[in-house]
Amino acid sequence: MGAQVGGMYAAGVPLDDLASIWRSMNVGKVAKTLRPTIPWSGWSSGSQIARTVRSLVGEQQIEDLEIPFAAVATDLQSGKPYPITRGSLVEAIRASLSVPGLFTPVWKDERLLIDGGVTDPVPVSVARQLGADVVVGVDVLVCPEESSLGGIPALEPRERILGILGGTSDTADDGPRRFYPSVFSVLFQMSTVFQKQVSLLQLALQPPDVLIRPDFSPNPPNYSDVKQAIEAGEQAALAAIPEILRVLGRGPELRSTA
User: What is the pLDDT tens value at each position of the chain, 258 positions in all?
Assistant: First the structure.
């Protein structure tokens, strides 16, 4: 999402237009976007997303953008971050959002690329390499404990014998009800845990000048309903304005995005 929002902003697309597209998403549109594909290197080819991005930015090249921009992907072979700073903006965005298992990897620059968030969730160093004197980082990773994790309830021996499914509420005596999540739930939760740990380590080593961290705890974002997530982001950004102005007061105007 960082590559999509940053790339469109750098290309001159009004953010209100992008917000309108995501606000119009529903289960049907998400299903169309995530239509299964073959070969089986990912659930979806991501072609629908690429078409949507192309309809807004056309065939713009990254090196021609007025604002310096980099879409950060991950080189699947080397396991290292790979900032894309030249070539098709659409291809760069598509490569950067290749969430493993969800979207197929993308071949670009003789590399097989996946989601940049796997290795560099908040690419502060990339923004500085682009020439930014002041970096405003945005950490939108949901904390693992905020994720909605559920599945098929695990039956106790007595329930299996009688064919009775007990309640799923927590009790002081028995503790939380046990369940078996789907393989997709396990993989996505694993990714959430991994990316959050990587993000915390990187932010400790290379902190931005200002860090915006939206609070998604009341309603973690999902593809079919982003309204709450957009509002949480707006609130966090507005709250950070005084700190951003304070930092900008001692340095050149921020012009780079990553």
Answer: 889 999 999 999 998 888 887 777 766 666 666 666 666 666 777 788 888 889 989 999 999 999 999 999 999 999 999 999 999 999 999 999 888 878 889 999 999 999 998 899 999 999 999 999 999 999 988 777 766 666 677 666 655 555 555 444 444 455 566 777 777 778 777 877 888 888 889 999 999 999 999 988 766 666 666 778 888 899 999 999 999 999 988 544 444 444
Phi and psi at residue 144, in whole multiples of 5°? -50, -40
Query: Which letter, b or e, does each residue of 54-92 get, where b requires 16 or more Cβ atoms within 10 Å of its Cβ?
Result: bebbeebebeebeebbbbbbbebeeeebbbbbeebbbbb
- Integer Cα distance of 44 and 47 in angstroms: 8
d(CA 43, CA 219): 25
Residue 152 Cα distances to 145, 182, 191, 234, angstroms: 19, 8, 21, 36
d(CA 169, CA 175): 9
CA distance 62 to 141: 26
247-257 burial, b for 16+ CB within 10 Å, e for fewer?
bbeeeeebebb
How far the first Cα of the chain sits from its last, in Å, is: 11
Note if the bond before 39 is cis, omega within 30 degrees: yes
